[in-house]
From TrEMBL:
<keyword id="KW-0576">Peroxisome</keyword>
<feature type="compositionally biased region" description="Polar residues">
    <location>
        <begin position="1"/>
        <end position="18"/>
    </location>
</feature>
<dbReference type="Pfam" id="PF01014">
    <property type="entry name" value="Uricase"/>
</dbReference>
<protein>
    <recommendedName>
        <fullName>Uricase</fullName>
        <ecNumber>1.7.3.3</ecNumber>
    </recommendedName>
</protein>
<comment type="similarity">
    <text>Belongs to the uricase family.</text>
</comment>
<comment type="pathway">
    <text>Purine metabolism; urate degradation; (S)-allantoin from urate: step 1/3.</text>
</comment>
<feature type="binding site">
    <location>
        <position position="97"/>
    </location>
    <ligand>
        <name>O2</name>
    </ligand>
</feature>
<feature type="active site" description="Charge relay system">
    <location>
        <position position="292"/>
    </location>
</feature>
<dbReference type="InterPro" id="IPR002042">
    <property type="entry name" value="Uricase"/>
</dbReference>
<dbReference type="GO" id="GO:0006145">
    <property type="term" value="P:purine nucleobase catabolic process"/>
</dbReference>
<comment type="function">
    <text>Catalyzes the oxidation of uric acid to 5-hydroxyisourate, which is further processed to form (S)-allantoin.</text>
</comment>
<feature type="binding site">
    <location>
        <position position="264"/>
    </location>
    <ligand>
        <name>5-hydroxyisourate</name>
    </ligand>
</feature>
<dbReference type="GO" id="GO:0005777">
    <property type="term" value="C:peroxisome"/>
</dbReference>
<feature type="binding site">
    <location>
        <position position="198"/>
    </location>
    <ligand>
        <name>5-hydroxyisourate</name>
    </ligand>
</feature>
<feature type="binding site">
    <location>
        <position position="290"/>
    </location>
    <ligand>
        <name>O2</name>
    </ligand>
</feature>
<dbReference type="GO" id="GO:0019628">
    <property type="term" value="P:urate catabolic process"/>
</dbReference>
<feature type="binding site">
    <location>
        <position position="215"/>
    </location>
    <ligand>
        <name>urate</name>
    </ligand>
</feature>
Amino acid sequence: MPWTSTNRIYAKPSNTSSGEGGPFSLTSAKPASTAAEDTGGRFELSDHGYGKCSVKLLHVYRDGDYHVIREFEVSTELKLASESAYIAGDNKDVVATDSQKNTVYLLAKKYGIKTPEEFGAVVVNHFLYTYRQVVEAKCHIIEYPWERLQAGIPHNHAFVFAPTATRWCEVFQVRHEAVIVKSGLRDLRVLKTTQSAFVDFVQDEYTTLADAPERIFSTIVEAEWTYDNMKSADFDNAWLTVKDAILEKFAGPPETGVYSPSVQHTLYQAEKTVLEKVSEISWIRMTMPNKHYLNIDVSKFPANVTKGDPRHYIYQPIDKPAGLIYAQLRRRPKSHL
């Protein structure tokens, strides 16, 4: 792509100024361009960047009467080679955040949208190869979970908001290096009323929790993963495979279910299934915080107020404090022996 805004980025200093302290004065000191120069080597700007947050975008692809939609919330972030905007208040290298917002809309119009990951790659590539002062670019995208309305058959142009889980991705690239893609899901809240236990854990002087051979299992799953092959990855299929693996290992078959001896075991089984099914995923990390539902002890109440249908069970939801379980499963490096 051609470089743009050359005249503004590399504008020469004006020669119309005169007098002491002018641009060509031998006595004028060169202003500091880095934090290290500004502080005599005491400090350095170890990280910096800026961008536009939460650019909302609805893309509609109209193929005759059949329409396809994707709604994104896009955030961009750029890192410049120069520190001058911070140190000297010099904005000549700064691509305004409003321009970044406009770029998101224009790239979506020009190239269309297939997946969050592919659109994120288009965005970071544009910033890196349009503005040579940009050395790193990042794009974070949240997808809003619309599904096609089913009215006996799939509707041509009507959709329903179905927030079972939220999809997101983060695309990052350093100039002259490969694109790095991280995908994820969040807010996948699940609950099952049986076939979950937690027993045989450490019992010592600090323990008050009793073994629970039968308990409610509920959690809000978050997952993130990276790809080792951007070109061959099927991003939509990978995201659905991760979600389905979590639900499969959590719930099991509809009539019989699956036994969970711990949150850790269920989490590991889901991660293993993902790596077995999606060869392009190099590692996956999940977190599963406990969302407790405690049995209400009615034994202290008289029988005449507790007697009723024995099929009724009452639990108290407890969100905090909560246990937090996480793990990251990755492929082992191949041996070169």
